[in-house]
Amino acid sequence: MNSLDRGRIFISILIILGLTIIAGCSREDQPREINLENREPSKTVQRQPAEKPLRIAVGGMITPREGFIYYRRIVNYIGEKLNRNVELVDRESYGEVNELLKKGEVDAAFVCGGPYVEGHEEFGLELLVAPVVYGETRYYSYIIVNKDSQISTFKELHGKRFAFTDPMSNSGKLFPTYMLARMNETPETFFNKYIFTNTHDKAIKAVAQGIVDGAAVDSLIWEYSNRTDPVFTSKTRIIKKSPPYGIPPVVVHPGLDKNLKEALSDVFLNAHNDEKGKKILEKMMIDRFALINDSAYDSIREMKAWVARQESGKKSK
Q1: Are 180 and 223 a contacting pair, CB within 8 Å?
Q2: Nearest one of 295, 64, 302 to 174, comparing CA atoms
Q3: Domains parsed from the chain with CATH numbers
Q4: pTM
Q5: What is the distance between the terminal CA atoms of the chain, rounded to a whole angstrom?
Q6: What is the rounded CA–CA span in Å between residue 196 and residue 311?
Q7: Cα separations (Å) of 33 from 36, 115, 183?
């Protein structure tokens, strides 16, 4: 084979290899052209802020402090029913709870009738529901003494040691102060000494142990203790029962979202129809929750007004 033939053969091989390489590259294998000029900008996903927890305070309980666990359970139950985080805020002072409600730092609270009346007047505190206990949405103030005491009437506590509970309490402060005002007396002029125990169960204990001669306490708490653990109530005796007053209610901040307020009310009103809710209520000795009218607390307003007039009259003399 001469050199010319060798050259032709080499050229043929190159052509065949070239066609093979070109055939091996399909259209799909070719690099795709990307036009950056018409490309839409990427969208930023906006994250929604975490839902603010619902805050419920316990200021006025219809059970002793030992029953606080049931308030925690009912608050947890509310959270489950609303499918949202719920925080329990514990305060012993009614004044502290009202201040939190006023500032909107808590959304709802268990309070006494006295703090509700003051909060409603001061910043529009609203009723939500009220517990039905022993078939009623009312309660009483009990004036109690030691069971071995010779004292049988409120007047006989003159010159004695006495225990109030909270300065804003209806049953633990306003009612006995009102009785004194009707007698043209004040705690300062009538008692030899008086103290504030903050809670009703501590006042019961103070009377039972002889620390004070008498006290004004919430009938609901006295009755609850007397039924469940009468170690201290059995050492006391009731010498005076007040007229009925609107029961300590559940209240809400006036600015609470209307839909949330309705949902919260619905959970309370239907708790007794739910197996889990019913068990919690039974432990608290609550039959159920019900709606209650503001007028149920008018008698508390009347007492406050009477005491205020008496105090004003004394100052003007």
Answers
A1: no
A2: 302
A3: 54-137+247-296 (3.40.190.10), 141-242 (3.40.190.10)
A4: 0.81
A5: 145
A6: 20
A7: 10, 75, 99
